[in-house]
Each structure stands twice: as C-alpha cells, then as structure tokens.
Write a structure and sequence with these properties.
332 residues; UDP N-Acetylglucosamine Acyltransferase, domain 1; five-stranded parallel beta sheet
Length: 332
C-alpha cells in the first residue's frame, strides 16, 4: 500500500523577520522542508507541498522533485489541504500523510508507527500526539473511553476542562485517501478563528462511525515547530546532538560533542578524532584514523585516511592519505 505525503508549507513566517521563506531556513545544513520530507515514509508518489507567497522560492529550490499545490489565501490548515485535493485525487495512494513543513525534528520511525494502523486496516485515520507539561498554544486531544480520538479542540475554542488536557496535537495525520477527500468537502469555518481546521476531519470521521487512533510521539522534541530564530536555534542544537550521537556510535571520537559542529550530510570514517570548535559542512568526506584539531573548518571536499588537520580551513579540498595540513593553512 502506498502513502501520499502532503506537507503544509505556505506559512509566511513573519516572526522569522527574514527575506527567506520559513521552510527554506536551514538546520544542520538542510532546509526545514528537507527534514520533514526525509522523515516521511518512502513512496513512489512525489510529496505534495502546499505553498503560498513563497511559491517561487520553493520552486527555485526543489524544481520538479515535488508536486505543488498553491494556497493563495491563508484560511487555515484545512483550507491548505483543500488546495491539494486535485493532486491527492490524482495520486495512486491508499493513504495520505499530512504533516507540517516547518517541523524538522520528526523521526521516520514515528511516521511509520503513525501510518501502520491505517495501512494495516486497524483504523481509518491516526493522529500524532504528544504529552506536554505545558500545552499552551496547542490543540487538545479528546479521547473516548476506548482510548480512540474523537476530536481535536484548538486552544481558542477549548473549554476550561479541555485546557487541562496535556495530550496535544502536533500536526501529523494519516488518513485513508478516499475518506480524507470526502471529509475535506465537509469542513466548515464555524470556530473562533473563522478558519478551516484540518483537525476537524477527526470529528467528521468519528460522526461517520470511523475509528481514529492516537499515536503518541515518544520524544517531545519532535514537537518543535519553527516560528522564530529562537526556535530555529533550539532545533539546530537538538539536531546537532542527534547527528553527533550517530557519528560517535559509528566509531568516531568527538572530544567535546557540544562544541563540535557537523552537518547532516557529512561522512566520517571510524577511529577519526575530532577536537572541539571544529566545523564540518557541505557534505565533506573524512577518512579513518584522522585527527582534526581545534579551530579547523572543513567545507566539502575529500580527506583521506590518516590525515592530520591543525587549525586550518579547507574548502572543497582533496587531501591524500597520511598528509598533514597546517597550522593556519587555507586550502581551496
């Protein structure tokens, strides 16, 4: 069974105070949109990305790698997905995964779990949720006595007893395709915001006797959405920790992981030692048994085995096995 991924990426990101589209800001070398797409299940269906005023910038970045739907007016998340109805209908998918394009901390295993119930036929839809000590600003998950989701209430529409709920909606939904298309046609904007909420499809499905399961994200970090530079820095810090953890577990020594900056697409072979205040970016490849001392910056290029780099800058440079570079060298 195939899953069609739909990414909501039309937000203008005014709080970023930037000329760059919010979803094109980067965390550890990849755009926010890249991270969201990378977490989605593999599928022969190209991802559908809902864009707005950022359409030209997103097209310039991704070309024909994705399918575009355009939301000309910002009338809510439900309205955004409604703008992708034709593209969803044209896909050969069995289920649709709807996620945010500005949440880079999603994990692939979380989406696999989210989609599993729908693809197996155990439920008709699934909603990604998270337990937060401070749920302020998030929609609250309403469950029935069987633990199934029967509704999602946005904070501005919630009653006092609903505001006390700590299980929140974190912008991840998997729905059988035909049921989604039917529910989109029944959305209304009768709420405090006068917007069309994608979360209202839950109530529609439940009223039709459909089963909606919750899928609780194990790590609250996955719920980080990017709305300003502070949250961007938080995501950068958390993602860098993930990357460094993976690199160390592959056999690389990082003397001080918290002060080592390695982008996502970098490759480093085993038994290499990296000292603090080193920056490695742009898909650089570093061999085994190397030592990279403090103050070095490696941007792209290929570093052979047994190489020592001391307080130097290497930009797309090639260094042969066993060579020493620096101190204070610049290679381009």
């Amino acid at each position: 069974m195939q899953v069609q991924t739909v990414l909501m990426a039309a937000g203008e990101g005014t709080r970023m105070r930037s000329d760059i589209s919010k979803v094109l800001h980067k965390v550890c070398g990849r755009t926010l949109l890249d991270w969201s797409m990378a977490a989605a299940p593999e599928s022969p269906c190209k991802p559908i990305v809902i864009v707005g005023r950022n359409e030209a910038a997103v097209r310039a970045t991704y070309g024909d790698k994705i399918v575009y739907a355009v939301q000309k007016e910002r009338l809510g998340t439900g309205h955004a997905v409604m703008m992708a109805e034709d593209q969803i209908r044209a896909s050969e998918s069995d289920a649709v995964l709807i996620i945010a394009g500005d949440m880079p901390m999603y994990r692939p295993e979380t989406f696999e779990k989210l989609c599993e119930g729908v693809l197996s036929g155990r439920c008709d839809a699934a909603v990604l949720t998270c337990i937060l000590e401070d749920p302020t600003g998030y929609g609250r998950i309403i469950r029935d006595e069987n633990g199934h989701v029967v509704g999602v209430v946005e904070q501005k529409d919630a009653k006092p007893e609903q505001l006390a709920i700590k299980e929140t909606n974190v912008s991840g939904y998997c729905v059988k395709r035909d049921l989604l298309l039917d529910a989109l046609g029944r959305l209304t904007n009768e709420n405090a915001q006068h917007e069309y909420y994608i979360t209202d499809i839950v109530g529609i499905l439940v009223s039709d006797g459909r089963v909606v399961e919750p899928c609780v994200a194990e790590d609250p970090i996955e719920c980080i959405g990017i709305n300003d530079r502070v949250q961007l820095a938080q995501a950068e810090r958390e993602m860098r920790a993930r990357i460094n953890d993976r690199i160390m577990r592959s056999g690389v020594t990082l003397i001080d992981p918290e002060n080592t900056y390695i982008e996502a697409d970098v490759q480093i072979d085993r038994d290499t030692v990296i000292w603090p205040n080193v920056v490695i970016t742009n898909g650089a490849k570093i061999g085994r048994d190397c030592t990279i001392y403090s103050g070095s910056q490696i941007c792209g290029g290929v570093i052979g085995n047994g190489v020592t780099v001391t307080s130097s800058v290497l930009c797309n440079a090639s260094v042969a096995d066993g060579e020493s570079v620096g101190p204070f060298a610049v290679l381009k």
